[in-house]
Design goal:
Elements lengths: L1 H13 L5 H94 L1
Helix pairs in contact: 1-2
Length: about 110
């Protein structure tokens, strides 16, 4: 639409006289262009607003998912800590029993040889 208006203006600029009807045609074409631009502007504003709503919704969903994942990870970490503590306590108990067994053997050997 803008190209057509510019073409008309260029054609008329080559002529030596411009009539009122020529100006009226250009004004009418410019009004059409302005209306098209207004419609495009409004359409773009609606699209931008819709995109903002979608982005806000997506961000909220991501925040919820991140929070949920953080809770899950905290639970898994707590479970791993508890399992590690239990394993360490079991190893400590085994080491203590081993040390007691060695001490008992030493005591028995000393008693036997003395």
């Amino acid at each position: 639409m803008q190209a057509a208006v510019l073409l008309k203006v260029m054609r008329m600029s080559g002529e030596s006289t411009v009539t009122k009807s020529d100006l009226a045609l250009v004004k009418a074409d410019l009004s059409l262009v302005q209306a098209d631009l207004s419609r495009m502007d409004e359409s773009l504003r609606r699209e931008i607003a819709a995109t903002r709503v979608e982005l806000r919704s997506s961000i909220a969903e991501l925040r919820t998912e991140i929070a949920s994942t953080a809770v899950e990870l905290r639970g898994e970490i707590a479970t791993a800590k508890a399992e590690l503590r239990a394993d360490m306590n079991a190893m400590a108990n085994k080491m203590l029993l081993s040390q007691l067994a060695v001490a008992g053997l030493l005591f028995a050997a000393i008693k036997t040889f003395t």
